[in-house]
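Deviations from the work plan: none for this task. Representative record:
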Amino acid sequence: MGTITVLWLVLLILMVSVGGSQGISSYLGLLINFGILFISVVLMAFHFSPIIVTLVSSIILLSITIFWSNASDNASSSAFFAALVILLILVAIILPIENWAKVGGFGLEDSDELEGLSTLVGIDFTAVAVSTAILSSLGAIAEAAIAIASGLDEIISQHSAILPKQLFFDGTIIGRQIIGTAVNTLFFGFFGSSLALFMWFKGLNYSLGTIINDKVFAGELIAIMVAFIGVVLTIPITTLIMSIRLHNKQKVK
Amino acid sequence: MLKVSGVKKLLVEVILAVVFCLAVVVLASHDDHFYTQPIFQIHRVINGKQQKVVDEFHNVDHQTDQKLTGKIINGKYSGRTLTIQNTYSDSNAMDHKLAPGQKVFIALHTKPRLHATVKDLKRDVPIAILFAIAISLLLIVLQFRGFVVIFSILVNTLLFWLAIRINERTNGAPVILIFSVLAVIFCALTLFLVMGWTKKMMVTLMAVVGSTTATILIMLLIFGFTQEKGVYYESMQYVTQLPKPLFLAEVLIGVLGAVMDEATDIVASLATLKKEKPEMSRMQLFNSGRAIGRSIMGPLINVLFFIFMAETFAMTILFLKNGNSWGYSFSMNMSLGMISSLVSAIGIVLTVLLSSLFAGLWIKGDEK
């Protein structure tokens, strides 16, 4: 058996024993997410527009991650709506930045791997870099939105008469606690996945100026900063959506 | 509560943030003399005729030659006007379409006369503006906590850089040892900044260190059992030393943030629970911890999964376009990302167990 197969099996056993049926649905969610990511890559290779493929798959990926989580209906639909709004804001930030910094494609550090490969393949790699930045932020946005929406939903279920304004205030406080640690998840993920690149820079004595302007490094940095901005934005946007929905619900009553 | 004063305060903060971002852009676009590499600002671009290129896999692309006229703006030859050749393709994989106003780094040649070639684009302004936006948002939304978050990231970055220096000095021999020690320091420091020096923090730290160690051991066990079949270290990028320990260190550092995030959540919730209901038994606490963990582990696993997988996109597409099968393209580009994601996922699930267990054993409910 291959290593990847055994890892999937061990993960299945662990997730079922810890999470029961919820564990199974999270596990299936992960498998399906991988399937969607792989299909997206193949579609891009078939010359479908990377940006459109990414937007469509992002919406599917967000709905799977958010609706298959354990959150209540109110929390997950608010979280999903908030995640969509943030996705749009991020696209508006990423498109000009990527076109300005032009981090698409490959850098000098990739030369070894590119040996023998044709790079003139007629696919817009700047657009692929936009997809990379959007997709790598999706998980973090979904996680933060679910956490904040669930926290607020808990408050609503305990004090059903709470005023929307008070809810917004509480949400900001809950959000601050959650985001403080969520930011670490992102940064360690980034440090870990760029460890080899940093060692390369040190080994070849790159100066700070060279590192900041380096295509590969700038690309990774932009992706992580965008995810970071997305995560911070989940606090006001999720709380705002929850308070508006609460306001509407109380008006109906 | 959102009173008039709150709105006014927010408005002031937003105006300050905009001023800050603008200032950063102005500063960053005037930093040319800090660079030792010659920088060239493009004033005029004349595009040549587009040429169709077809490679051996029948991929169609178009190449265009550009004649760039502009000035060198720093260093010894500052002020000299030059004309430089550039070629770009539709795919932009290894080249750039350049436009007037852009700044590029160039390689200068003085023989037989002064001429130059384009090395790379200057990217510090977009990077700086992104940083400015992120910092402003963080401070507006998180207020004082924002400073703590920024401080914690700064210190962690410094430590990380220090570890890389030590690694370089020792030629990467004890890479696992260096990054294991670093991991423990990272955790202790970050958790201290989040929770303060409390018993809760100690319990969380134990849970994080315990589950990360267990994860790495399980990973090594599985690697040994399957004799690393399907682990293509040769596909690792930017490798300057022995790949296997480097990969281990990458996974170790990568999973740390997620595990801390989760353990903090579980231990803090269980401490509150025990305080409210002191009669809860250890078993009941353990089960409540599992219930909390069950709902956060799925989304958390996805956070790392997307980070590890998305960065493999460009190379995978290139492999697919170079006539490789889906399976080979996956193995050579995405398989290591998938292994990191799966190992991290195992770590995240183990953290649910260990933090519930430790909180059940050691949290008495009278902690501050």
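DSSP finds nine helices and five strands in chain B.
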